[in-house]
Design a protein that fits this description.
Elements: E1 7-13, H1 18-34, E2 37-43, E3 72-75, H2 85-93, E4 100-102, E5 111-115, H3 117-131, E6 137-141, H4 147-162, E7 171-174, H5 182-190, E8 198-201, H6 204-216, E9 226-228, H7 234-238, E10 245-247, H8 250-265, E11 275-278, E12 281-283, H9 295-327, H10 335-342, E13 349-358, E14 376-384, E15 412-419, E16 424-432, H11 440-474, H12 484-496, E17 502-512, H13 514-521, H14 523-540, E18 546-551, E19 554-559, H15 564-585, E20 592-602, H16 608-625
Parallel strand pairs: 1-2, 1-3, 2-15, 3-4, 4-5, 5-11, 6-7, 6-8, 8-9
Antiparallel strand pairs: 10-12, 13-14, 13-16, 15-16, 17-19, 17-20, 18-19
Helix pairs in contact: 1-8, 3-4, 5-6, 9-10, 9-11, 13-14, 14-15
Length: about 625
């Protein structure tokens, strides 16, 4: 629970597109008026037009969202641009027990709040027929696998038949709901036996593309051919001539959607499907000839667009600089500082959290030892500019997707998946100031954070592999101790680090009777005895001693910065552990070790081999002095 207020989740895609930004502003306004929290679950889907990227793993975030934390859900299905993903989101939402309102498409089993597109399309067609008295209409449809395109084309044909005209007018061209088909559409309409007096487009973007292409060919809108759009987008009203279109009253639908959620939250009829239509409103403007271009007003509009463009360029420069700084990050510990210092070009934010999947052992997803998600998350970046959250909450389970806030004011959050081509790392959570939604630069930051985490993960994996290979090269396979090479390297490093005379110690330790154990009990038992001796010696290393297996049954120990007292304790422990092992192991033989020690003062120029030679001589003397000794 965020706070004591009701919380509504909004599931959608591409909230930074200009159309969806205006919808978000409307929802934010309505949420503040109703005093509820909003949590946007925002997907990016596919990015790019030529080399489409990014959509593969993003929707895995759905598996980690516990819908029971929400009092209601608003589903906006229009923006999904990955095939089958809208259906995947709907399937996930069907598990929710709270009321769900769909605000763009009819979804069986949900409460549905949508515009009557048939009425809106009829308004536009009849405006050309009845007001302008055109009879030669062309139609530019969206891609005809889309239900909105099918509905709007069907209404065009119905109205044309009702007016006694050919149902396809002078011709129907299948567009793409975007800007890419303007040239082909212009070729189509200008090559028809009857040139259209007006072209009705199924959305504003296609209308802009077509009108722009007409202008390049010397065909003026509306003087030569009138053009209309649909959706009432910001782009359509900034384009010259301003588009005649049909607008969706976003604030009306936002307020109605939130009222519906709240109405059904406490109602026994929360699962009884309810459908509400909101009538669209026509915009009769310049592209049909109803209004003339006001050049003074357009000059102000151009200046405003110039200001926006200039700000866009400055933000782009900042983004480029920030990405260079992000590229310098060599550790996940640097990410928070780098983000906090550089992430200023997507708008003012009150808080930002980057939550990483953690496995059952608490290992985060950016660590190469991570196995699979346990359903818990760990914060990697925690920026709380207003001090409203308690960071002492270290782990976040699904129920704690959002940290608890000390502020009881309505909150608006945006959650996005942080994923790369091969894995999902977790999610980001940002709370913008006031009603603002972040811009496209936030998406850029999230993508590059994912790329940075992927690179750090791969570097971590490579470094661990290198360390493992290096460890193998200096470790004895049987005992896990340093081998002769590892012992020599570490011991000589320790000697070189001595900057003034210090008391150091070397020891040579040798097993007694290993040949007898091998001959009588087998080499496998001899190996067990060697491992037991190694464990005993390692256990005695309590004061910074460096121990290694020199080969066979011989072990070396080097102790920098030593004392006689430490040596006496080492020898005492060695004898104690040997005795304890023989008592516990209850072997038919007794294990024993001979050892020689050498304490001496040296500086960084001391020779390890000379010290070991003396220790070895003393070990041999001890071994020779033992009664009943065996080789």
């Amino acid at each position: 629970m965020i706070n004591s207020r009701k919380t509504i989740a909004v599931f959608g895609c591409c909230f930074t597109s200009r159309y969806r930004v205006s919808l978000s502003h409307a929802l934010n306004t309505a949420a503040e008026e109703q005093g509820v929290n909003l949590v946007y679950i925002n997907f990016l889907g596919n990015i790019g037009n030529i080399n489409v990227q990014y959509g593969l793993y993003e929707f895995d975030l759905l598996d980690h969202i516990d819908l029971s934390q929400f009092d209601g859900i608003i589903y906006d299905g229009e923006g999904y641009n990955v095939e089958g993903m809208a259906e995947k989101v709907i399937q996930a939402l069907r598990k929710a027990t709270c009321p769900i309102v769909s605000i763009s498409n009819y979804v069986e089993g949900f409460h549905n709040l949508y515009f009557d597109d048939a009425v809106g399309q009829r308004m536009m067609i009849e405006h050309f027929l009845d007001h302008h008295h055109f009879t030669k209409l062309g139609y530019m449809a969206g891609y005809l696998t889309h239900p909105d395109a099918q509905l709007r084309l069907h209404e065009f044909r119905t109205v044309m038949r009702e007016h006694g005209l050919p149902e396809d007018g002078v011709g129907v061209f299948e567009g793409d709901f975007w800007f890419h088909k303007g040239k082909e559409a212009a070729d189509f309409f200008l090559s028809l036996p009857q040139r259209p007096e007006a072209v009705v487009c199924a959305n504003d973007y296609m209308a802009i593309a077509l009108a722009s292409e007409f202008r390049r060919r010397g065909i003026f809108v509306p003087e030569d051919i009138a053009v209309s759009g649909y959706d009432g987008t910001i782009e359509g009203q900034e384009f010259i001539p301003h588009l005649t279109s049909v607008t969706r009253e976003r604030l009306d639908i936002a307020k109605t959607a939130i009222r519906m959620v709240l109405q059904f939250c406490d109602s026994e009829q929360k699962n009884a499907e309810k459908n509400i239509h909101i009538a669209p409103r026509p915009i009769y403007s310049q592209s049909c000839g109803c209004l003339k271009v006001d050049y003074r007003s357009e000059t102000e509009n151009i200046n405003r667009i110039y200001d926006v463009t200039r700000e866009l360029l400055h933000n782009l420069y900042d983004a480029e600089s920030s990405l260079l700084n992000l590229n310098r990050v060599v550790s996940v510990r640097d990410l928070e500082r780098t983000f906090h210092k550089n992430a200023a070009n997507f708008g003012k934010y009150a808080s930002f959290f980057l939550m990483m999947h953690a496995d059952e052992n608490g290992i985060p997803s950016y660590d190469s030892d991570f196995t699979h998600s346990s359903g818990n998350f760990e914060p990697l970046i925690w920026i709380d500019n207003q001090g409203k959250y308690d960071r002492r909450e270290q782990g976040f389970c699904r129920q704690k997707l959002i940290p608890h806030s000390s502020s009881d004011a309505p909150h608006i959050y945006y959650i996005m998946s942080i994923h790369c081509a091969e894995r999902v790392f977790g999610y980001s959570l940002v709370e913008m100031e006031e009603r603002e939604i972040f811009n496209e630069y936030y998406n850029m930051w999230m993508i590059n954070l994912a790329v940075t985490l992927e690179q750090l993960l791969k570097s971590d994996r490579i470094n661990k592999l290198i360390n493992k290979l290096e460890d193998i090269s200096i470790r004895d396979a049987l005992t896990g101790m340093f081998n002769r090479r590892g012992f020599d390297e570490r011991s000589r490093e320790a000697i070189r680090s001595i900057n003034s005379e210090r008391l150091v110690c070397t020891m040579v330790i040798d097993m007694d009777g290993l040949k007898h154990i091998n001959d009588v009990y087998g080499h496998h038992e001899g190996d067990r005895a060697i491992k037991a001796a190694a464990e005993i010696i390692t256990k005695c290393c309590e004061s910074g001693e460096i121990a290694g297996r020199a080969g066979g049954d011989e072990f070396y120990v080097f102790a920098p910065d030593y004392t006689e007292g430490k040596l006496l304790r080492f020898v005492s422990n060695l004898r104690k552990y040997i005795k304890q092992y023989n008592a516990d192991a209850k072997k038919s033989y007794e294990m024993d070790l001979s050892f020689g020690t050498f304490l001496t003062m040296t500086d960084g120029s001391g020779r390890l081999d000379d010290f070991l030679r003396i220790s070895d001589s003393r070990m041999y003397e001890q071994k020779q002095a033992k009664p009943n000794r065996r080789k």
